[in-house]
Amino acid sequence: MNSEPTPAGDSPFRSASEARDSAPQFVLPLVVRIERSAPPARTDALETSARAVLVFLSDERSVGEGEWAQAVRDWQDARIRKVVRRARGAEWRRAQELPGITVTGKSAEVRVFPPVPLDGWPKELAKLQVSGTDLDDPEPPVAPGPGEPVLWLNPDLDMSAGKAMAQTGHAAQLAWWELPDAERDAWRAAGFPLAVRTADPARWRALTESGLPLVRDAGFTEIAPGSCTVVADHPALRRTPGA
């Protein structure tokens, strides 16, 4: 699979078996810094994770003949898997020494690494924990700004922060694939502004039927296969009034 737009009904995150399941499987590792004394706010961690995926996908090393481009193509030819692990102190410093990109939010730091085989993580990352990413928001998130892209979370699902970070990364990636080149360039030039919010239950169904990019989780962890987790609401992708 290349990086052409992916229809909402043919998402590489959905649970149905397909040809890409027979390809060698890769994963995009993300590591969030969680220090005991100063953990990041949950929403900021989710937003920073999504931006990290966008920064990685648009980096010159990830496209064309870049040094990470073949790994990205191999990853995209299979299931689009992302795994978020946590690090602190010396663990975080060791992770920083590996090739990758660190993206900083208001309180969160997330480092994204080139895709690796599903069973071939670097030892510095393999020892990091997936659990323990339970984060909170000290204050309720403010309303998104006018025209700001929003990644809407399913209000009926209870996901750990790590799981939700992977899901918002998926949604950002689907939006990136579907955007025209000019809109991609504008989003990148602006620094990939976006918000992550939980949808109102009454609005969630309309969002899932709007034609906007929709993530259906494969169900490897935490939630049931086929669960709708996030809708990517970028203004340039709205196909119906009120979507």
From TrEMBL:
Read off the Gene3D superfamilies from this record: Bit1
Keyword Cell membrane in the entry? The reply is no
Reactions catalysed, semicolon-separated, are: an N-acyl-L-alpha-aminoacyl-tRNA + H2O = an N-acyl-L-amino acid + a tRNA + H(+)
Which keywords does UniProt give here?
Answer: Hydrolase
One GO MF term attached to the UniProt entry: hydrolase activity
Q: Where are the stretches annotated Disordered?
A: 1-21
Q: What class of enzyme is it?
A: hydrolase
Please name the Pfam families in this protein's record.
PTH2
Which InterPro entries is this protein grouped with? Pep_tRNA_hydro_II_dom_sf, PTH2
Is the keyword Oxidoreductase in the record? no
Query: What's the protein name?
Result: peptidyl-tRNA hydrolase
Organism the protein comes from: Streptomyces nigra
Source taxonomy lineage? Bacteria, Bacillati, Actinomycetota, Actinomycetes, Kitasatosporales
